[in-house]
Amino acid sequence: MDRIQNVLSSTLAASEGASTGMARAAQMLGRPEALIGGGAAEGPAPSFSNILSSAIQSVNSAQNQSKVLQRGYQMGDPEVGLEQTMIAMNKASLSFQMLTQARNKVVQAYTDVMNMPV
User: Fold this and answer.
1) Between the N and C ends of the chain, which has fewer C-beta atoms within 10 Å?
2) 0.70 surpassed by pTM
3) Which NCBIfam families match (predicted)?
4) pLDDT tens, position by position, for the chain (118 residues)?
């Protein structure tokens, strides 16, 4: 039970820094008025391209971490547990699904704008 608690706490601590891009992208997609300056911001708002780039890097990082843990578990590394590997795999999968949904929303918005009568 202590090992599970340790894995969860270390996973949460590691994900706080890595998922800030995804959290920021989700926040911006949920509040599109913040993209045009209508939201309350403490300073200059980051550009949409920077947010998207950060989200993609975050997903890539989660997938790479998952791959490293999978390889370590398969090779029999005693430092890598099954629960740690499964959590990393699920995080990578969910991050990728979220990025895919964000892309779908952007493509749909572009299609809607292009289909507007002039």
Assistant:
1) C
2) no
3) fliE
4) 555 555 555 555 555 554 555 565 555 556 555 545 554 555 677 888 898 899 999 999 999 999 999 999 999 999 999 999 999 999 999 999 999 999 999 999 999 999 998 8
